[in-house]
Amino acid sequence: MTILKRARRLAETGRQWFVPPPGPVAWGRLYNCGVLVALNPEAEADRVGLTLARDGEREHDLPIERRLTENGTTYLHAALDPALLAAPGSLRLTVTEPGRADQQRIAVGPGRHTLHLDGIVGGVLDGWVSSLSVEPLPAVRLVIDGLEGEPVRPDIYRPELRFGGREGGWNGFSFTLPPWALDGQPHTIAVRAGDTEVSLGSYAPRLRASLHVEAPSRVTGWVFDDAGPDRPGLVRAVRFGEDVAQVETHPRPDLLERFGRHSAAFAFPPGALKPGTDLAVGPVGAGEVIGHLRGTIELARAEARALLLPNAPSTTLTERRRLRDRLVAAVRPGGGARLVLAEPAAPEILPESGRTPPPACAIVPVYKGLADLEACLASLLPQLVPGRMRALVIDDASPDQDVTRYLDDLAAAQHPGLTVLRNRENLGFIGTVNGGLALLEPGEDCILVNADTVLAPRALEKLGLACHRGPGIASATPLSNNATILGFPDMPEAQGPLLGLGPAAIDAALEAAGAPPVTIPTGIGFCLYMNRQALDEVGGFSPEWGRGYCEEVDWCLTARDLGWIHVAATDTYVEHEGSVSFGRAERLAILEQNHARLVALYPEYQDEVDAFLAADPLRPLRLSVLGTLLAGSIRRLTLHVGHGFGGGATRYVDQIRGLARAEDHEIGYLAPAGKRLALALDAARAEVTLRPDDLFTLIEALEQAGVAVDLHLNARFGYESGVLDRLFSGRWPYAVTLHDFQWYCPKVHLVDGRNFYCEEPPAEICRHCTVRGVAYDYADQNALMGGGLDGWLATNERILRGARRLVAPSRDTAERYARRLGLTGIAVVPHPEAASPVPAQPHRARSGAVRVALVGGIGPHKGFELVVALAERAARERRPIAFTVIGSVSDRSRVEAVPNLTVTGAYDPKDLPRLLAEADPDYVFLSSVWPETYSYVLSEVWAAGYPVVTFDIGAPAERIRAEGGGLLLPFSRDTALLLDALVAARGQLAEVAIPRLPAAAPSLAGYEAAIEAAAREGA
C-alpha cells in the first residue's frame, strides 16, 4: 500500500497517526541499457534495492553499480542487459526502500519509450527521453491543452544518463512555455514521444516571493513556484529589456523548515544591481516581475520636483534645500545609494509651452587654439542680436600672441552684441566662467560655449527654446560629434563629423526629424544653456574642481537635487573639437582625478549614466538621421560581415576599404559587440553600435531611399542564428569569402585535440573533437557543439548555398570546400594586396648557425607546440640553429627557458621590414600546422625580400609551387626529420628568387570583375 493510500485509509477511519518522513527514493526510471534512481536529499543510499523480472519470470536482484551526484541530486545506477529490449515484452521493476516498495510494469520493444519530466521551473520544462528498444531516440513534442508543438530533437546532455546508454547522455530536451501558457490560468501540460505521453496535469504558476534590500545595492530574498518542483531556479536582473545578472536559488535552513523547500533562497552580490532594475522569474518575455529597484536619491529628487513645478521657484527653495541637506547626510557619505522597492517613475512629458525665452548671454572662455577660436566665433557672431542674444569673449591671459592680436582686432571691429574682455592673470576655466557669470544682466540666461566648437545657425536660439519648453528645466545641451552621452552618430566615444558634413547640414537633418527634448542625467559643458533661475539657486561653478572637468556635472547634479531637470536639445547640433587647452595626457590625468571626486560626492551618478547609455532614448533619432544623411550621399552600400577579432579576415576587409571605388559606394564593416552589433562606415567616417533590429531598420531605410545594398560575409562567429537568418535570407545579394574552415569545422582550423591537422575525418567523428566545447563563439548555436553538429552544419550550408558568389583566396581552399560540402562554382581569386616599397634583401653566403625567423602570433594552430619542441630538441642535441619569433607566442613562459628561441613581442606591420633586417634570418619559417587559406605573412616576407620555408599543405605551399620563393617541407611532427630539413634549407635556398608582388592593388571594380571571371571559369 502506498503512503498516499494509507493516509486516506487512516483519515477515513479517524485513527490518529504520524506521516513518516519521505523515503530515500524520489523516482526510479528504466532507460536504454540501465536503471536510474534519484534519491531525496539526505537519503541513505545503502537502504535502496532493485529487482527486475521479464513478463512472468521470477524477479532477480539488480546490483547497483555506481553512485553519482549531478546538479545537487544523488543517483543510483544499475546496468541493464540490452537484450531485454530487443523484442516486445513487459518488464517489472521494483524499487525497494524501508517500509515500502514501488513496482512499475514497463512495456518495452519497438515504439516504446521512457519519458521523464523534471517539472516546470521558471517557465521552462526540462526532461529526458530514452528508447526502450533498439530504435534511435524519437523527437518529442510539448502538448498544452491538447495542442501539439513542433517536434524537438533531444540534444541536451544529461550526465546522469551517460553510463550504459548508447546516446552517451545526449537524451535531454527543454521546452520554454509560451507566454499564453504562463498567464496564471491552469493549463494541462504534457510531453509526447511517439505513442508515449507523460502529463504533469494541470499547471498554473503560483509564485511566492520575499525581497530584502540592503545597502549598498545588495538584494536577497526567496522565491519559488508553489506549483513546481523543488529544484534550483533562476532569478534574473533585467534592465531595459536585457539580462544584466542571474543568480540560482539555493538552500536556506529557515526556508526548508517553513516551506519544505531545499532551493528557494537567492542573493545578488553587492554592486550587481542598480536602480532601474527589475527582478524577474521565468523566461524572457513571459516571466513574472517580483520587484523593481528604485533609488532613495531618485525618490528625494522627485519630492523636490513636486515642490518646484507648481510654484514660483523662490517660494519653495528653502524647503527644497532642506530636502537636499537630508539627502546628502543620509545617503552620499556612505559611498553608495541605498535601494528601496518602489514602482518605476513615469517619464516626464515636456509639451511645448510657447513661452519666449528671456535674453541670454554666451560666455566664451579663450586660452589657446587660434584656428578653432576663429571658426567658433565665425559661427557665433551671426547669431548675436542686441537685446536678445549677446556674447562675452574672455581671454584668460592666453600665452598665444596670435590669439591676443586676433581678439584685439575683434574688439576693435565693434560687432553688435559682442564684448571682448581679458583677465589680468590666468584664472583657469572655472574662474573665467564665474567671472563671466558675475557680469550677467538681471534675468539673463547664460550659454557656456567652448572656443573649440562650431555652432549651427540658430543653435543658441533653439537651445533657449529647449530650456524653456516647460517649467523646471535647468539646462539644455545640443547633440555633437564629441559630447559623450549626446554623441552623434553614436555615443559615448568622440568621432569626426559624419560624412565630413558641416554643423549646418547635420543640424538641419536633426531639426527635420522633429524629436522632442529628452531628459538627461546631466548637461555637458562644451555648449550648455543655463536657466537663470537655476543659476540663482545653485550659483556658479565650484572652484574646488581646480583647472576644470566635471564642474558642470557637479552644478547639474546639485540642480537636480533641488528638483530641476536637464534636457538634450534634439533639434540642435554643435561640432566640438575637444581638448584644445590641454594635451591628451594632461587632460586624462585631470579627468581621472576629478571623476573620482565626482563619484565620491554623487555615488548615484555613474549608475544613472550607465542607465541612460543602456536605455539610449536618443537611439531612434540618431538612427533616423543617420539613414537620412547617408541616403543623401551614397548610392551603393556593401556591408562586410566579420568577427572583429583582427587577423587575416579583418585585414582583408581593411584592404577592400582601401581600394579605389566610386565616390558614392560606401563600405561598411559589421562585427558582434556583446548583444549588439558594431557598424563602421568607411567613407562616412562613422562608427555606431546597433541593436540587431536597428541594423535592419537602417538597411531598409537606405533601400527605400534608392541605395543598393549587398552583403559580403567573412565570418559567422558571434552572431545569433536569427540575425544570420535575416541577413542571409536572400533578400539582399551576398558573397562569402572563405577565409578559413569555420563553415564545416567548429574549431575553424581543421586541427584535432593535439592542435595538429586532423586530416578531415567524416563529420560524425568531428563531434568527438567538440564535445567539451570550442574556443569560438557561435552564439545561440554554441549548444550544438558536442552533439551531432547536424543543425549547425545545416545552417552553414544553407548560407553558403544561398550566396551569389563564393570566393576562395586559393585553389587548395576551394577544393577542400568542394570535397567536404559539394560546393561548386567557387571563384578562386587571391586577396587584392600590393607589395610594400621595400628593396629586396641581397643574398649572401653565410656560415655558422642557421638563423630562422617566425613571423606573427604563433599560437596553437600556428605550430607553437611544434616550434617549442624543435627548439628544445635542437638545444639538447647542440644543433646549429636558432629561432627568433618576430611577434608573440601563446605561452611566453614556455619559451623563457629555451636558449635558442627568442620572442621579440607584438609589432606594427609597418615595422616588419626593419625587424626582419635586425633579426637577419637566413629565411622565414611559416610553421602553421593547418592548411592556411592565403597567408598575408607570406606576402609580407616576400615583400621584405626573404625566402620562406613551410609545410607542403594549404595555400602557402600552393603559392610557393606556383611562384617559387621558398622551400616545402614534408608535413610531419617528426622533430628529428624537420630539424635536418631546416638546417639544410639555408643551402637549398641560396639561389631562390623572391617573387615580385603587384606594384599596385586593383580597384574595387577590378577586383569584383576578377571574381566574376573566376566564377565563370569555375562553373
Overview of this protein structure:
By secondary structure, this protein is of the alpha/beta class. It has 27 helices and 46 strands. The strands form 9 sheets. Strands 24, 25, 26, 27, 28, 29, 30, 31 and 32 form a 9-stranded mixed beta sheet that branches. An 8-stranded mixed beta sheet has the order 36-35-34-33-37-38-39-40, with helices on both faces. The protein has a 6-stranded parallel beta sheet with strand order 43-42-41-44-45-46, with helices on both faces. Helix 3 packs antiparallel against helix 4, helix 9 packs across helix 14 and helix 14 (619-631) runs parallel beside helix 16. The model is unreliable at 1-21 and 334-344 (pLDDT under 50).
What's the SSE blueprint?
Layout: H1 3-13, E1 25-31, E2 34-39, E3 49-54, E4 60-61, E5 66-70, E6 73-79, E7 89-97, E8 100-108, E9 113-121, E10 124-131, E11 141-144, E12 147-148, E13 172-176, E14 187-193, E15 196-203, E16 207-214, E17 218-225, E18 234-239, E19 242-248, H2 253-259, E20 265-268, E21 278-281, E22 288-295, H3 296-308, H4 313-330, E23 339-341, E24 360-366, H5 370-380, E25 389-395, H6 401-413, E26 418-422, H7 428-437, E27 445-449, E28 453-455, H8 459-467, E29 473-479, H9 503-513, E30 518-520, E31 527-530, H10 532-538, H11 551-561, E32 565-576, H12 584-601, H13 605-615, H14 619-631, E33 636-641, H15 647-658, E34 665-673, E35 676-681, E36 686-690, H16 692-704, E37 708-713, H17 721-727, E38 734-737, H18 763-769, H19 790-801, E39 805-808, H20 811-821, E40 827-828, E41 850-858, H21 864-876, E42 881-889, H22 892-895, E43 901-903, H23 912-919, E44 923-926, H24 936-944, E45 948-951, H25 954-963, E46 966-969, H26 975-988, H27 1004-1018
Parallel strand pairs: 24-25, 24-27, 25-26, 29-32, 33-34, 33-37, 37-38, 38-39, 39-40, 41-42, 41-44, 42-43, 44-45, 45-46
Antiparallel strand pairs: 1-2, 2-6, 3-4, 3-7, 5-6, 7-8, 9-10, 10-13, 11-12, 11-14, 14-15, 16-17, 17-20, 18-19, 18-21, 21-22, 22-23, 27-31, 28-32, 29-31, 30-32, 34-35, 35-36
Helix pairs in contact: 3-4, 9-14, 14-16, 21-26
